[in-house]
Design a protein that fits this description.
mainly alpha; two-stranded antiparallel ribbon; about 0% strand; disordered N terminus
Length: about 350
């Protein structure tokens, strides 16, 4: 989700050098310098701990505050204060942020399912940032690590690893995969290891480093749209409530459900060596991401819904952008490749 420590407390140029502790016989400190070196290491450790604490606080805030505001929105709706303009703002904000995650963060930046211009890459990275699920490079690194260790030790959010057995183990695993892993810094992937390509991309790095700016822009949009639709500040505030807090809450839990529910419930059409599953009723809320077993079978495929009836709005959008010439080199899966990985070749689920 959101991890803001590196946005709020950026490392100074000297921090990484002091933390490495690499020395040669020529530059090894004398006894008089050893105390200063120890102090420098201690300061670096305290700084790392501070960054981790800031991350945890930010995660708690972004998890709890939208939930509380969803309660306020429900109360207002029950009292008759919900208007069509609020739902329009919610729908527009949800779709824009959702596309940023599914088409941008996931299919483009994580899996390189298609190619596009630098301007479009920047735009999709900005849209994904407005979802408040974390800066793009961190998100991508975590997801790539998930694919490398899917449902094995090392997977940041598997519901099946080290959670015990029985119903308590199942519930504990689902909680960890859905939400709990976000609060444990030890699960986070190394960006240097899992996202080197994005660290070298100046457009993506700029959006990543200005993450908080795009979060604020993602909140200003529903307020502005609410004002435009109603002609009043009150309309802007209710637009902010529904297109901001409620949208963040709904989109977060749609995304989190891929990690939890889609590794626990549903059908497995392909033999993937993990517990990824297709969960049909979650397909539309996740804009096609819930065809998760399909995705684990063919991670680079731009289309996750491989059957005509497997609804995949994100793939529809990519196809539309391809016809307009805005994206190209779209990765597709041939029927022969599908058949080669089918868990039950004679069955067509």
């Amino acid at each position: 989700m959101i991890a803001m420590a590196h946005e709020l407390l950026p490392l100074r140029p000297g921090d990484s050098a002091s933390a490495t502790g690499t020395q040669t016989s020529r530059d090894r400190p004398s006894d008089g310098d050893s105390e200063g070196t120890s102090i420098g290491v201690a300061v670096s450790d305290r700084r790392a701990q501070t960054l981790g604490n800031v991350d945890r606080v930010a995660n708690i805030i972004v998890t709890v505050v939208p939930l509380l505001l969803v309660g306020l929105a429900a109360r207002l709706a029950w009292g008759g204060a919900l208007h069509w303009t609020d739902l329009a703002v919610l729908a527009a904000s949800y779709l824009l942020s959702g596309v940023g995650i599914t088409v941008g963060y996931h299919r483009l930046f994580t899996h390189n399912s298609f190619k596009t211009s630098s301007a479009m890459r920047g735009f999709l990275a900005v849209l994904g940032s407005t979802a408040v699920e974390g800066p793009v490079i961190e998100w991508v690194a975590n997801h790539r690590k998930h694919h490398q260790f899917s449902d094995r030790r090392g997977d940041p959010h598997s519901p099946h690893v080290d959670h015990g057995s029985g119903w308590r183990g199942a519930l504990g695993g689902l909680y960890h995969a859905h939400l709990g892993w976000i609060f444990g810094a030890e699960a986070m992937a190394s960006e240097d290891r899992y996202a080197k390509d994005l660290l070298r991309d100046p457009v993506v790095r700029f959006v990543d480093r200005t993450f908080v700016l795009w979060v604020l822009a993602g909140l200003a949009f529903p307020f502005g749209l609410g004002v435009a639709l109603t002609g009043s500040v009150d309309g802007g505030l209710t637009g902010l409530l529904w297109g901001g807090a409620v949208r963040i809450f709904l989109l977060h839990h749609a995304t989190f459900s891929i990690n939890s529910l889609c590794h626990f419930f549903g059908l497995q059409r392909f033999a993937t060596g993990d517990e990824s599953r297709n969960l049909f009723w979650l397909a539309l809320p996740t804009l096609g991401e819930a065809w998760h077993n399909n995705h684990h079978a063919f991670p680079t495929s731009a289309r996750h819904g491989l059957r005509w009836w497997q609804l995949d709005p994100s793939a529809w959008l990519i196809g539309g952008l391809e016809r307009l010439g805005l994206v190209w080199d779209v990765v597709r899966v041939s029927p022969d490749r599908e058949l080669s990985k089918a868990a039950h070749p004679g069955r067509q689920p």
